[in-house]
Amino acid sequence: MLIKRKSIEAQANRKAGPKKSVATADAPKPPRKPKYAPVTLSEQNGVRYLHFGTEWVQGAMRIRKPDWIELEYAQQMMAWMLFNHQPKRIVQLGLGTGALTKFCYRQFPEARVTAVELNPSVITICASMFKLTPNNERLSVLEMDALDFVNDTNNHGTIDALQVDLYDATARGPVLDSPEFYQACEACLTPNGIMTINLFGDHPSYTKNLAAMVFAFDTVLCLPEVHDGNVVAFAFKTKPNLDFTALYAQAERITQTTKLPAKSWVNGLKS
Fold first, then answer.
1. Angle at 139 between CA 135 and CA 143, to 5 degrees
2. Following DSSP, what letter does each residue of 42-70 receive, concatenated?
3. Please, are residues 61 and 131 in contact by the beta-carbon 8 Å criterion?
4. Other Cβ atoms closer than 10 A to 177
5. Which range has the worst mean pLDDT, 31-35, 148-152, 171-175, 218-222?
6. How do residues 188-228 score in pLDDT, each as one tens digit?
7. Are 236 and 220 in contact (CB under 8 A)?
8. pTM recorded for the entire structure
9. Taken in order 55, 58, 64, 69, is the CA torsion positive or negative?
10. How many CB atoms lie within 10 A of CB 37?
């Protein structure tokens, strides 16, 4: 039985984050080993949900609107559109149900869209159950570690919009959260590139991730919390011009063309 996102996140936010062992300064870090959680599905009120063997929601698709972004926090992950309406390359780290990937592919026909996903089962189920378009000249879904992707110098300086949503089955915080990871993300951006990332506001991982992003990026801003936990942060390679008159005008254009609630994003930035 599906537990609604609000209930799930409220419960998780009351739990402490996973403990980490203390290693000596000279000890090398062991290589990351993939741990594939079972991929499961549920449906409620016309919406299909993705889970990793738990009641945590990892993504959603309204069955009658497969290219619509169903979850509010995922809609907010598109808020970089306030600052860039003609991206050439968009990348998602973490595929989920492919909601962001599908939306970007449809909405920006001149852009190349790349999604990076470690779990091959997620890629398979996105194609079979969430109507993800097969790879073509504009769309690439890569089965690989997001850390390897951002550390690849071939990707540095090439991405206009980077969307990061990297959670495992426990969903207690991003699985990649070090200053080095965020430095690599920053290196991947074009001079005016923007990263949006899904965080948990009422959780120890929130402060850690914000500190790491502030270390790596010129400017970091956050939208107000939604879903009793999700906080979407913006990380800018170059300090943005927060001209709210222009941002509200751009928000109106976004809403007219996509029906996304872009005015609320500007309100959030202003607050």
1. 65
2. EEETTEEEEESSSS---EEEETTBTTS--
3. yes
4. 17
5. 31-35
6. 999 999 999 999 877 788 999 999 999 999 999 999 998 76
7. yes
8. 0.86
9. positive
10. 17
